[in-house]
Amino acid sequence: MNTWNRHRRGIMFIIMAAFFFALMSFFIRLSGDLPTMQKSFFRNAVASVAAAAMLGRSKEKFRVRKGSLPWLLIRSAAGTVGLIANYYAIDHMNISDANMLNKLSPFFAIIASIFVLKEKVSKTEWVAVFIAFGSCA
């Protein structure tokens, strides 16, 4: 497959992902007065079944490296908290505003990396952060 076709295919996958995430937000709002925790539980239950099926079909064995289990659990907890917060935002805000906050997460990660990881941020990254937050106003 040549480069042009791979780029077109990648663009189509990005557009499809955006569409299906928007559709997911729509159905979360459409589910009505169900508690946020119940919505997130069933979403994670479906994702767990899909992940288990993919792991079962994989030729590689699933294993956790020694010493990485605490970090894996922290990452899982942070992802769950993020999902619950996103569902709460979808239930209590305009869907467009909630999705915009969700899509800004990489920029929040840049800012958090300064304080948590003591990383140096380049001028290009600062410009991207200012443009991202400026376009939200």
Counting helices, strands and paired strands, the structural category is mainly alpha
| Number of helices, counting only DSSP H or I runs of 4 residues or more | 6
Q: Which percent bin holds the helix content?
A: over 70%
- Low-pLDDT residue spans: none
Q: How does the overall form come out from the CA principal axes? A: globular
- How big is the Rg? 18 Å
Strand tally, please?
Answer: 0
- Which percent band covers the strand fraction? under 5%
Distance between the termini: 42 Å
Order of helices and strands: HHHHHH
How much is the average pLDDT?
87
Sheet with most strands = none
Outline the fold blueprint:
Elements: H1 3-30, H2 36-57, H3 69-92, H4 95-103, H5 105-116, H6 123-136
Helix pairs in contact: 2-3, 3-4, 5-6
Explain how this protein is built:
The chain has helices at residues 3-30, 36-57, 69-92, 95-103, 105-116, 123-136. It is mostly helical and 137 residues long. Helix 2 crosses helix 3. The model has no long low-confidence stretch (mean pLDDT 87).
